[in-house]
Amino acid sequence: RNMSSAGPEGRKKMRECDGLIDSLVYYIQGAIADHEPNDKATENCVCILHNLSYQLEIELPESYAQSIYMQRRNISNNDKTPSCFGTRSRKVKEKQQDTPLPEEKSNPKGVESLWHSTLIRIYLSLIAKSTRNYTQEASLGALQNLTAGTGPMPFAVARTVVQKANGLPGIRAMLHVGHPAVRKTAVSLLRNLSRNTFLQNDIAREVLPDLVSMLPECVPRSDVACETTTSICYTLFNLTQSSSHNARLLLSAHGLPKVIAISMNDSNMFSKASRAASVLLYSLWSHTDLHSAYKK
């Protein structure tokens, strides 16, 4: 567990170690099957996998990277508009987000397991069944790592979490645990998931009121709470930017006074949260059909 946090070279060596990842996954599967998700060894295994999934997309061996990105290249090469990726139009961004991974292997080995749906479901199972805060945080953090970035892997993992494995109820429950770091990691994961336009309505329906309820009445005074507030604002920005319906959901959940109060804080120490709230307000105002409701 300590070695897995030693940096890129350490992660690379451990990912390449024959049988190591498979053994960690095997142990966790056994612990879940035996209804023992709270033992220390399971926590250690999940924390190792969490660390090994960090910057995975960037650090993948060339052979894996080529197979994962091949379909994406084919789609971009077949596109009739040569400048579409330069302009980053919404249509093309959605196409990028919808690019699937190559067909999953039924029996993944080694580094292939790190983004496989089997392990994604294991993380979600631990989130639902473990009461150990470090295990919860590491499971959420692994999913956060896997959904970071804009390539086909993060978006495929996000769709597995939300649509194929029905992971939102478990993640939603983590928004209400007592441990601040667990809540912060759950919100960071939702922020990553909410970047996928295909999932935004599902996410808003399941967790938008919970996110609004988590917003403080003013900028919080601790670093962790401030980071959590910042992530909530950006998640709400993603969910409401293109959806008047979701913006109305935020309004119905009494989120607007909170966002205004956070945006008005002028302390440099907490400017990230204030800036995020201001960006959210600006986006909300773009829904002209809601102006009269805002004014009320």
Looking at this protein, list some descriptive labels:
single chain, 296 residues, mainly alpha, Leucine-rich Repeat Variant, 2 domains, 18 helices, elongated, repeat
Task: Draw up the topology in text.
Blueprint: H1 8-16, H2 20-33, H3 40-52, H4 56-59, H5 62-78, H6 84-87, H7 90-97, H8 117-129, H9 133-146, H10 152-164, H11 168-174, H12 180-193, H13 200-214, H14 223-240, H15 244-252, H16 256-263, H17 271-285, H18 291-295
Helix pairs in contact: 2-3, 2-8, 3-9, 8-9, 8-11, 9-12, 12-14, 13-14, 14-17, 16-17
InterPro entries: ARM-like, ARM-type_fold, Armadillo, Plakophilin/d_Catenin
Subcellular location: Cell junction
Organism: Zosterops hypoxanthus
Characterise the protein shown here.
By secondary structure, this protein is mostly helical. It folds into 2 domains: about 1-65 and about 105-185, Leucine-rich Repeat Variant; about 195-295. It is built from 18 helices and no strands. It has helices spanning about 10-15, 20-35, 40-50, 55-60, 60-80, 85, 90-95, 115-130, 135-145, 150-165, 170-175, 180-195, 200-215, 225-240, 245-250, 255-265, 270-285, 290-295. α8 (about 115-130) crosses α11 (about 170-175) and α12 (about 180-195) packs parallel to α14. The N and C termini lie far apart (about 55 Å). About 40% of the residues are buried. Residues about 70-100 have low confidence and may be disordered.
The share of residues in extended strands comes to under 5%
Q: Indicate the overall shape.
A: elongated
CATH class of the largest domain: Mainly Alpha
Helix content: 55-70%
CATH superfamily of the largest domain: Leucine-rich Repeat Variant
Briefly note the CATH topology name of the largest domain.
Answer: Leucine-rich Repeat Variant
Q: Which structural category do the helix and sheet elements fall into?
A: mainly alpha
The ordered string of helix (H) and strand (E) elements is HHHHHHHHHHHHHHHHHH
Distance between the termini: 54 Å
Subcellular location: Cell junction
Protein name: PKP2 protein
Biased composition (Basic and acidic residues): 94-107
Family: Belongs to the beta-catenin family.
